[in-house]
Amino acid sequence: MSIHNARIWEFVKDFLTINLGMAIYALGWAAFLLPYHITTGGMVGMFAILYYVTGFPISMAVLLANVLLLAVAYKPLGWQFVLKSAYAVLALSTFLSLGQQMMTGDDGQLIQLMGEGQDSMACVLGAILNGVGVGTVLLSGGSTGGWDIVATLVNKYRNISLGRVMLYLDLLVIASCLPIFHDWRMVVFGYVTLAIYTYVVDLLINSTRQDTQFIIFTHRYKEISERIIHETSHSVTCLNGEGYYSHQDIKVLITIVHKREQVKILRMIHETDPTAFVSQSRVEGVYGNGFNAIKA
Question: Which of 64, 251, 262, 292 has its CA 20 to 30 A from that of 86?
């Protein structure tokens, strides 16, 4: 496959992944959070509050607000960010609208799938689906719009981290439920949903980027290197070392493998050189041949 075709395929794959992520995210809202009047942080959470008060469709509010934000963000953030974000927003608005239509009963009310009084379970399931959906979009290099755009703009012109900006906005949105609804339940469920959602996003993103680095001190470096190269298809870097106390020469091997291969590597080292000294550590964000592709 040529570089040009590979880039086209990556582009198409990213947009398909964004569709999947937005569908899962919208399902969390339509099937679990909205029917039980649960909100959380983010721009969708803010528009959920608007929906509970006025009945104004969330999908339309999300679309209108993000169109304005993306118009402002186009010049400072570039067309690639804006294009992927615009597509994610359009997909989210569409899936939210479809989801609400599917979950609306004959009486015009949203169906509570878990039954009455199952707010806690709905909160957990909705938060998990939201986290999986957003994490899937982020892994494709996309953005879900909303606070992502606001935080990125603030970060570009002020020395404030993206996470801090989004956290402040999320806390403010959830806290606004109290003066509007005078209901501590919504505030508590909002923060619980936010905590679960954030944990799931972090777990999903970090678990896909975790690999293992081995530093191996051994005299049988040739055998171990050959086995790693031929049995795992990963490369090995060989350095010259010297024991400071013993002043003996020794070879130091460095290799990075996928997390699922770490037990295989340890067995391989033990079988080849039981006296080898090994350091194993977790690494995140490994890019290059055999690992993740660097995305601009």
Answer: 292
